C-alpha cells in the first residue's frame, strides 16, 4: 500500500495546479552518497507495477520492490519529500528526496548528477 500524508498531498496539489496530475512512480535511486533511496518521478505504469490511487493521485511501484519493502509512506518536510517503507531498501529506511520530474542523470535531482 502507498499512502501520502496531508502535507505531501498539499504539495502535490500545488505542483500539479492548473495541469492534469500525472502518475507518480516510486523507485530506488542510487544517485545519493547514502546508497539506495526511494524517490519519486512522473512516469507511466507498466504491467510489472502495482498501482495505488491515493487522495486523487496515482502512485505506482514495481511489484517485486513492493513485496521487498512493504508499505510506503510519502511525506513532505522542509527539505522535500520523504519516502519511507516498512522494510529498508539497501540498508536505508528513511530517505528524503526532491520531487524530480525527470529521473536522476538529468541534472534535476539534488545529487547533482
Automatic annotation (TrEMBL):
Domain Core: 2-89
Domain of life according to the entry: Bacteria
InterPro entries, alphabetized: ATAP_core_dom, HesB-like_dom_sf
Protein name as annotated: Core domain-containing protein
